Amino acid sequence: MASQMTEMLKGTLEGIVLAILADRPAYGYEITSRLRDEGFTDLVEGTVYALLVRIEQRGLVDVKKVPSEKGPPRKVYSLNRQGRTQLGEFWKTWGFLAERIEHLHRNESHSNEGE
Fold this sequence. Notes:
The chain is α+β, with helices and mostly antiparallel strands. It has a single domain, classed as Arc Repressor Mutant, subunit A, CATH 1.10.10.10. It has helices spanning 2-23, 28-37, 45-57, 81-112; strands at residues 26-27, 61-66, 74-79.
């Protein structure tokens, strides 16, 4: 099951991270912690950082360097207008997929009742 979860997460992680940033700006470790709090316990921190680089390059977030108490400044990511548009598209797509998958699941469940 872990492998299937990993594959499904790859396709949705960007939208999940954008949703977290829609709530409030955050830096990489905060985002990873929030994901783990939400139950994504097997998520590797490097995966989140690689995703943050990609969404920054695509112009979906604004980045501000904030001094850190320990070490170098932190990059704080905040969702910008383009990111909010992308998040809206993600939710539309997610709604469509979830509805279709649930429909298939219900039909499959009903067809197995006679067995």
